[in-house]
Records
---
Amino acid sequence: MADMTAAPIRHQRSEGEILLTMGAHGLRRMREAYSAKVRIPAGSREAILINTGGGLAGGDRFAFTIGAEENARLTVTSQAAERVYRSLGPPADVDVTLTAGAGATLMWLPQETILFDGAALTRRITADLAHDTRLLAVESVILGREAMGERVRRARLHDRWRISQAGRLVFADDIAFDGPPPESAATLGTGRAFATLVLVSPRAEDMLEAARAAIGAGGAASAWSGKLVARFSARDGFELRKSLIPALTLLAEGASLPKTWSF
C-alpha cells in the first residue's frame, strides 16, 4: 500500500543582508544581498534601507552591519515602515550591528515597525563605539494601524539592545512580551505605539532638560554617564511622531533628519 502521509509543508522564507561602511571622505564599502537593498544619494552621508520583500514573516532573517569610520558621519533610515506579518511559528529575526570610530557620528533612524496580529519578531541591536563617538538611535513599534481598524490581540516581540563604548558595556536593555500587548499603567495603558531612543554623546547629560521639554507628555527621559535614554508611548503612530520628531531634531544637534521622517 502506498504511503499517503502528507509531507510537511516547507514555507518560503526571506533573507537579506547589508554591509555598509562610511569613511570620513565618503563611502568605503557597500554590499547588499537577497531582499535587502540600500541606496545612498550622490554625495550624501545618508543611507536608505529597502526591503524588497515588502515586509517580514515568521522565519525571515535580516542582518545589517553598519559602520562609520574615524571622523565619519552616517545616517541610516528606511524607505518605509517595516511590516511584520502573522507568524506560523518562528519569529522574524533582525540583527543590527553598529560600529563607529573616534570622532564619528552615527545615527540609526529607521522608520516604525508595524506588528500585525499574530506577528513574531526578535531584534538585536549591538553597538561598539569609540570613546568619543556620537550615536543617536531609535526603534519605534506600532501595534496595528488604527486608521485601518486593525487590532493586535496577540504578538511576540523581543527587542534587545547592547551598546559598548571603548570596550565597556554602557547600555543594556530588553523589551519583550508574548501574548496580548501589555496594558498596565506602567506599560502601554491604552497606547498602541511606543519607542526607545538612545543618545550616546559627551553632551548627553547637558541636553536632558531640553529633551524632556521636546518630548512633552508623550514620554520621559533620563541621562547619566554620557548617555540619554528616552521612552515614548502614544495612541498611534501619528501621535508617536509628534513627540519623536522634536526629540530627534534636538538630539541630532544640527544634523538634518532624513526626509522619510517628515509628516
---
Amino acid sequence: MTDLLERLQGLLAEYLTMENIAFAVFSLLWLTSMIRCFGHRRLANLALRQRREKRGEAVPISVVVLAENQCNLLRKRLHKFLDQTHPDFEVIVVDMNSQDETQAYLKSLDYMPHLHYRTLPDGAKDISPEQLALTLGIRTATKEWVLLTNIACEPESRMWLYNISSRCTADKSIVLGYTRYRNPHGWAGMRYCFFSAWQQMLNLTHVRRRYIYRAEATNLCYRKEFFLQHKGFARNTTLLTGATDIMVNTYSDRGNTAVCLLPETTMLKDCPRSRQSWATERLFFMETRRHLRKKTTYRLRYALSVLLTWLYTLSLVATLTLSLLLTEQPYPLAIAAAVMWAVHSIWRSNCINRTFRTLKEPRLYFSLPLMLHLIAKWDFTAWTRHKLTNKKLFRKRFV
C-alpha cells in the first residue's frame, strides 16, 4: 500500500506541472469554445430554413416612418417605401416638427394614395418627441399590423413589406426583421457592421428560446391591438430613446414573437457619420438597458461569450509560455496547442462568416479575432461614459 501511494505521488509530481495544468485548462476552454461555435451558425440555419418554407399570405400593414429635418432623405428614399409590392398597405410619415422643407414636401405628395403624414402637436410636455411620434403614427394607422422605421433607413427590396408581413401570423404580436449598415468604409465602417451584426446574431437567436432583449426599431412590426392593450410607452414617457426596446423587452415571450430573416426583408441603415455619433448611440443604449426588466439570462449569456474569448486566449498564451520556459522538451506541447488554436480559428471563422454571408454582412477573416476581443473594450468604454454622464441628458427637458 505504501509503495502504491509513493508511486502515485511520483506520477503526480511528474505530470501535475504548471505547463500541464495550463494545457488542461486550455483544452477544456478549447472544447467549450468549439461547441459554442455551433450557436453562431444557428441564425444562418434559421434564415436558410425560412427561405425554403412556404410563405403565408401578406396581411394589411401600416408603415410608420419618423422624420426630423430630413427633407433631402425624404426626397431620396420615400418612394422606396411607397413602391412596395403589397396588396394592402399605407405609409404614415410623422414629421417631428422639422424646421426645413419637410412639411411643404409632404403636402406636395397629397395625391399619392398610400401616403399619409402627421405632425407633432406643439407644446407636448409630458412625453419625449420620439415616443410621441411613434404613438401618433401607430394610433393613426388603419391596418391591423404596424411596422416602425425611420427615413434614415431604406428597404433592400420591393418585396420587403410583402415578405415581412407574411410572417405576421394570427398567433404572433411582434415580428423582428434584420437591419444592417449600408456601404461601410474603412476600419470604422467594418467595426460598426461587425458589432451590429454580432449583437443581432445573439439577440435574434435568444428570441427563439425566450424573449426579446432589445430590438432594432428600424425594422419592427407590432400588432396595433397589442400596442394599445399595453398602453404603449406608458412605462417611460420621458426617456428620449429606447422606448421600443423597453416595450418589447417587457411584453415579449417565445410564443408571441417571430423573427423574419428572408433575404428581401432586410432594412439598410446609414453608417454613423463619425466615431462620436456611434459612441453617442452606444451611450444612450446604456441608459436604456437600465430600464429593461428581462435581462438576466441574456446578459449572462453575453458576458460568458465575451469572457470565454478572453479566457481562451489567455490560456493559450499561458500554455505556450510555460511549455517553452519550464520543460526540457517544449515543442510537443507547444505544437499541440498551436494546432488546436489553428483548428479552432478556422472553425470559428467558418461559423461566424457563414452567418454573415447569409445576412449579407461583410465577411471578416484575419481581423475577426481582433474584433471579438475588442467587444469587451467597446462595452467597457460605453459603460464608463454612461457612469460619468449626467442622467438628465437622457430625459426630455420640460419647458
---
Amino acid sequence: MNRINGHTSLLGLLGYPVAHTLSPLIHNSLAEYYGDDLVYLPFEVKEEDLENAVKGAFSLGIRGLNCTVPHKSAVTEYLERIDPMAEAIGAVNTLVRGEKGYIGYNTDHLGLLEAMRREDIPVEGEKVLILGAGGAARAVAAMCASQHAGRIVIANRSLEKAEALAEMAGKLGDVPAEGVRFTGLYEKLEGAEWLAIQCTSVGLAPDDDGCILTGENKRVFSLIHTGVDLIYKPAETVFLRQLRQDGKKTMNGARMLLYQGVIAYEMWKGIWNGQISTEQKILDEIFANLDKES
C-alpha cells in the first residue's frame, strides 16, 4: 500500500452484490506482474444508481471498469460506444476509457472459449444446452454460435427471453437454435449427449444450496455428458456436484473468470491483439490463488 501515490490509477468492478468477487485478486496480481501503478477495487452499485456510477467514474478519471450481475445489459445505455460483438451479444462486461466516455466490450465469450479449450471441452458440432437467458447467457450463446455448435437450446423461465436469445444466436452463427421453458425440459431435449452451460445465479454464494435443475428437471442430468457452471464461488455448485457424482466431466467458472479478466486487463493496457500475452506461469499462479479462495 505504500506505493499508492498521486499517480496511481484506479480500476474497478460494478455489480450488486460484489462482496464475493475474486476479480481484485486477478487484476491486482496482474498489476504487480506488469509493474503497473494501479489498484483494482469492487464497487457495489444498485441498478437505480448505475447511470450515476458510470458517469461519475468517468468524471473521476477511473481508467477502466468491469461490469457483472445485474448490469451487463443495462450499462450499454451509458457508454460512448460499443464494440460490434458486444452489441450483437447485447451485454458488456468491460469498459475501456475513451475520449468522451467508456467504450464497451465483452470478454466473457473470449474467456469462456479460452477456458474450455484448455480444459479440452469442444463446442464445434456439439448439442449445447444453455441454462438461463440473461447477460452471461448471451455471451455464451454468441460463443457457441461463433464456434459452430451443432444445435443450441436455451432454457429459461421466460420463454420470450429464451426465444429472443435463440434468434440472436441463430443469426450470429447460422446455427439451429431454439428457446424453451424449463417446464418439461427433459422431453424437449430428445436424447442424451448434451454439453450444458449453467448461466444463472442459482447456486451462487451465499445461497449455494440452490440448483437450476429441480423437481422433474432432475432427469435432465442423465442427458448431459459435460457440465460447465459460470459460477466460481463455491468452486463446486450443486449442479456440478450432481454431474461429478454421475461420472460426468465438469468445469466451474474460475478459469473463465481468469481469462476474461486477463483479456480485459490487456485491453486496458492497450496490448490485447486477439491472443493472451501474459506469461503462462503467471496465469497458473493466479489460478492457483483463485482455487484457494473459491
